[in-house]
TrEMBL record:
<keyword id="KW-1015">Disulfide bond</keyword>
<dbReference type="InterPro" id="IPR013766">
    <property type="entry name" value="Thioredoxin_domain"/>
</dbReference>
<dbReference type="GO" id="GO:0016491">
    <property type="term" value="F:oxidoreductase activity"/>
</dbReference>
<dbReference type="Pfam" id="PF13462">
    <property type="entry name" value="Thioredoxin_4"/>
</dbReference>
<protein>
    <submittedName>
        <fullName>Thioredoxin</fullName>
    </submittedName>
</protein>
<feature type="domain" description="Thioredoxin">
    <location>
        <begin position="46"/>
        <end position="248"/>
    </location>
</feature>
<keyword id="KW-0676">Redox-active center</keyword>
<keyword id="KW-0560">Oxidoreductase</keyword>
<dbReference type="InterPro" id="IPR012336">
    <property type="entry name" value="Thioredoxin-like_fold"/>
</dbReference>
<comment type="similarity">
    <text>Belongs to the thioredoxin family. DsbA subfamily.</text>
</comment>
<keyword id="KW-0472">Membrane</keyword>
<feature type="transmembrane region" description="Helical">
    <location>
        <begin position="18"/>
        <end position="38"/>
    </location>
</feature>
<keyword id="KW-0812">Transmembrane</keyword>
<dbReference type="InterPro" id="IPR036249">
    <property type="entry name" value="Thioredoxin-like_sf"/>
</dbReference>
<keyword id="KW-1133">Transmembrane helix</keyword>
<keyword id="KW-0732">Signal</keyword>
Length: 249
């Protein structure tokens, strides 16, 4: 008996054509129902996970979490879990979050958390560079240096840097020097257990918050849903709409 045959169907006496017709109808109903459900659940306005309860503030931000801009009133907080080598994170940075940081400076609090993925071998290295810079009070400068030079280290020379730790260290030390860090201290902090512990804690908090990929952004505890946005311009529009709605409350 062929493996794909159903012995129950064989015994029933119902013709193969009838069975196929019924199967096609059932599949069509399921597909149409799924499409309708997807369209109903999608939010073209960029609702930030409106169907889910907000993630606790203490999960999304720790006392020592890195901040790009802070609002005195603390009314709206954005938290981004990112991987510095992630191409989507770079796309968000270059086409949205860098502008959001500037346009909403002083009006929102923008927190970043580390979430390096295993598929990006330099992601951990870059996260350590960012945290080492933070220990000298220059996280923001390193954050921008990593993304502004992203093509140079994350793609063009990624394979070479990944296979040669000395060259990778030299690349990030170059950025440390450019932003005015004490390079010797930077090199020590890059391999500090405390720096790695902070990155690991960020990853653990991300998992608790339901993060499964990068970038993942939260607005006042709710995961941002880009809805039916088809390009970064539409994602940016949806994100700003959600921010403005939260600011207006």
């Amino acid at each position: 008996m062929p493996k794909n045959q159903n012995p129950v169907t064989q015994k029933s006496g119902v013709s193969t054509n009838v069975i196929l017709t019924i199967a096609v109808v059932v599949v069509a109903v399921l597909v149409i129902g799924g499409v309708l459900l997807f369209n109903r659940s999608g939010d073209s306005g960029g609702g930030a996970g409106s169907g889910q309860p907000p993630v606790a503030a203490e999960v999304l931000r720790k006392p020592d979490s890195n901040v790009l801009t802070e609002a005195p009133d603390g009314k709206v907080t954005v938290t981004e879990f990112l991987d510095y080598q992630c191409s989507s994170c770079y796309q968000y940075y270059s086409q949205m979050t860098k502008k959001i940081e500037n346009d909403y400076a002083g009006r929102i609090t923008f927190v970043t958390r580390n979430y390096p993925l295993e598929m990006h071998p330099l992601g951990q290295h870059a996260a350590r560079a960012a945290e080492a810079a933070a220990l000298q009070g220059k996280y923001k400068e390193m954050y921008h240096a990593l993304f502004d030079n992203w093509t140079a280290w994350a793609t063009a020379n990624a394979e070479e840097l990944n296979s040669d730790e000395a060259k990778a260290n030299a690349e990030f030390e170059k950025y440390a020097q450019q932003i005015g860090l004490d390079v010797n201290r930077f090199k020590q902090d890059m391999v500090s257990p405390n720096v790695q512990a902070k990155i690991d804690r960020d990853i653990a908090d991300g998992k608790t918050a339901g993060v499964s990929g990068t970038p993942t952004l939260f607005i006042n505890g709710r995961q941002f849903d880009q809805g039916n946005a088809q390009n970064m311009a539409e994602v940016d529009q949806a994100f700003r709409k959600q921010l403005d709605q939260e600011l207006a409350k």
